[in-house]
Amino acid sequence: MCMQKQLLTFLLCSGLFSMTLAQSGGTRSGGTRSGSTNSGWTPASMMAYKRVSNPVVSPDGKLVAYVVATARMDAENSDFLSHIYVTSTDGKLNYQYTFGDKSCTDPQFSPDGQFISFLSGRGKDAKKQVYIMRLTGGEAEPVTVAKNSITTYAWSPDSKRIAYTVTDTRSTQEEKDRKEKKDWDVVDQFQNAHLYALTLTKDAKGNYPVKQLTKGPFHIAGLDWAPNSKMVVFAQQSSPSANAWTSSKIAIVSADSGAVQAIATDKGAVSQPIYSHDGKFIAYIADTGQNSWMRKMSVCLIPTGGGPVKRLVTTPDELPTLVGWSPDDKTVVVSEALRTGSAMYSLPADGGTLKKITPLTQGVYASPNLNNQGDVAFLYQTTDMPIDVYVASLTTMAARKLTDIHSDYIANKNVAKTAVITWKSKDGKYDIDGLLTYPANYQAGKKYPLILNVHGGPAGVFAQTYTGASSPYPIQAFAQQGYFVLRPNPRGSSGYGAEFRRANYRDWGNKDYDDLMLGVDKTIAMGLAHPDSLVETGWSYGGYMTSAIITKTNRFKAVMAGAPVTNLMSFNGTADISDFLPSYFGGEFWDDPQVYADHSPMFAIKNAKTPTLIIHGQSDERVPPEQGYQLHRALQRLGVKTKMITYPRQPHGFVEPKFIEDVGERVIDWFDGNLGRHTTAPYQTASAVTEGRR
């Protein structure tokens, strides 16, 4: 079964969200950063961190495949190059499996254990196809020839077929129009992904036969094979729009005839269907009758032939991700956020009490993958330990570390410590957690500047992930510059239960704002942060809070708003998730304009006095750049110090490493400059030419 599920769903606006190689000591053209050293952490040095994903355990439990992505930042490239590695679970072997200048992703083992497969865009058209390679070695063979990139795929249990999804191709007339420069786009007209089955026995012409299994005005969002290799269950929604997940269904299709049968037609959101090993039931995720972007989800079981739905016991956060079935089909395994950590749970199929099966209370388990005999591969990391690949048995969950991917990266680096601190909310309802990273070389009794960092979402969560990872917010580089960094989880965050996640309903920027400010107050009361050296930053919903903060207080000396939501009315008319704000505010803005105005920073912008840096991607459909421009232009007209930088090609979460590095450097420069901490000229960054441009 293909069950690579991400453990933590960081709902970057649920969706609302995250140059040249560095020279020695963080020096770049134009100057040297204040406080830089020849060793330690800088935004540039942190780009060497390797991103690890997609651990997959082999059917016999002896091998684990995984993906490692490295930043490619030469004169012609700014991207992440991904390749597949394979390690043995006995620790004796660990080697790179794919090579070349084309990324390879989504590894899977064939159920018979003979092949490993992956996706790669190696052809001239760069379209992602499924490749297979014998585990004993040899050349990778492309088995699909789809006109568009393959999006998802899965082996049949008998290893004789591969099901995959691919977006519909344009018609002959549409292609002709595009060549003739009549290439207009109709808004909200999408190309859906449909399901195909490829037979891994070549026909007389030497081709692998392919059968299209679904067609029509809907989009395939997830799939799994039946144990008999004759049926495929899939989740479908009206389109691939980010807004369409709220109305979906589960259906089954025959891999031979193409006959489709809808089985789970719950009103609302359903996803992640997975067959039980005996083929009698399908587990899936469904909302609990309150279909909302504030999500309250549970695991459901339905007989494969249709019938009454059984809803299993709720999980602590009520936002589970399916991992799979136990080998005996008696339990369903899920993962989800747990405060600043994460956990996996087993849910009895008979409706009994759930059991937490991950033993550690610190750190983050991610991307668990379960084979049919109960072996689990997963990623694990803590704030001071980089991410690596682990394996365990479902029965004991005694984890074995299989890799040491970052040994060179962490050599000669000291990791500034991170602690979890907790404070009581102003209304007394909640305990609010925050991750507090100390300055490098912290000296007790000395007060330091503080960066308040607000996450996106609002249903995101700051978790105990490695603080030395590359990011637009390079935490260890902030610490190297002598800052405390506080990353709170105010009400509205995931990981603390559905009630907490919904506690900012119709109340953005008020009680969640209080939660944040009390965290800042706590660091001051602890004698750690200097009250006159406070700065703040956030991305997406965090950018919304940044925009709101500058209208409510002048206690911060500078802020950076990343992809900020600033005007709720115009945001709802331009973002790609038009159901999002009506979920949080109980209606459309034309029905209740006052609540939208009361919670829009732009309607209180005349109160702003704080120097504000604004960062936005030019290709951001989640929070369109007009939101950042509104804030920037208003601050300009009010005479408030402001600078806005836009980055070409970047969506809501930045994808090009040169720009990720640049953002981190700009944030430090902006904060250092406005706190009077520069000892030399700040960096002149590589993207300076884009400043002020649309």
Describe this structure in words.
This protein is of the alpha+beta class. It has three domains: 50-142; 147-171 and 186-277, no CATH class; 413-690, Alpha/Beta hydrolase fold, catalytic domain (Rossmann fold), CATH 3.40.50.1820. The protein is 14% helix and 32% strand. The protein contains eleven helices and 36 strands. The strands form eight sheets. The protein has an eight-stranded mixed β-sheet with strand order 29-30-32-31-33-34-35-36, with helices on both faces. Strands 1-2-3-4 form a four-stranded antiparallel β-sheet, with no helix packed on it. A four-stranded antiparallel β-sheet has the order 5-6-7-8, with no helix packed on it. Strand 31 (448-454), helix 3 (475-480) and strand 32 (484-489) form a beta-alpha-beta unit. The protein starts with 50 loop residues before the first strand and ends in a 20-residue tail after the last helix. The model is unreliable at 1-15, 17-38 and 679-694 (pLDDT under 50).
